[in-house]
Amino acid sequence: MAVNGGVSGVVVFESVGSLAAGPWIYAVVALSVLLDVFLPVLPSGVLVITAGTAAAAGSGAAGQVPHEVPDILALILSAATASVLGDLVAYRLAWRGGERLDRAIARSRRLTTAQERLGDALARGGGALVVLARFAPAGRSVVSFCAGAAHRRVRDFLPWSALAGLSWAAYSVALGYYGAQWLGATWLATGVSVAALFGAGAAAAFLMRRRPVS
């Protein structure tokens, strides 16, 4: 059994894990997550899942994987920290955005609605909307910019941003890691994990449209 696990780990490391080999993967993950608040098309979630898959491949390889594989805790912390930093950069830029940004938000019904709902949620001491938006496509960007543009207090926004980043990072890494554990460390496992991440995003977007979040 141990031999099979080692062979599986080596196979995946060569096909998927090689993309995430070496300590630099943490910096790549962090940079991707930080920037996708400005460029939501960046596949940061896919990268995090791939790194989690590589970690699962190495964990079962009984020392036969010839390169360093990612540590899941370090991956989670890297992705979560970068998520919060990206949120804060967007928040501060929007805070200083001035009239041009205000006009851009006013022209968009989606941004105006998001700003109003976010303001109400934070004013009531709740911020589940921030957490939910982290999973929705472009939701993180909308919430971060709207919080800054509305000059919401950072102490109201930051704790929820941290919870959102940690929740998203842990979920994404877990998808890659346990997907490989359950389905085998293959491209199929990675594909199923990515589909699950997109499914969570679709569900979050649906909930944000359908009902108010406190």
UniProtKB/TrEMBL annotation:
Top-rank taxon, per record: Bacteria
Domain VTT, residue spans: 43-177
Native source species: Streptomyces canarius
Protein name stated in the entry: Membrane protein
Annotated compartments: Cell membrane
Pfam families xrefs: VTT_dom
Swiss-Prot/TrEMBL keywords: Cell membrane, Membrane, Transmembrane, Transmembrane helix
Record's bilayer topology term: Multi-pass membrane protein
Membrane spanning residue stretches: 20-39, 46-66, 72-94, 157-179, 185-208
Protein family according to the UniProt entry: Belongs to the DedA family.
PANTHER family assigned to the protein according to its UniProt record, in alphabetical order: INNER MEMBRANE PROTEIN DEDA-RELATED, TRANSMEMBRANE PROTEIN
Organism phylogeny: Bacteria, Bacillati, Actinomycetota, Actinomycetes, Kitasatosporales
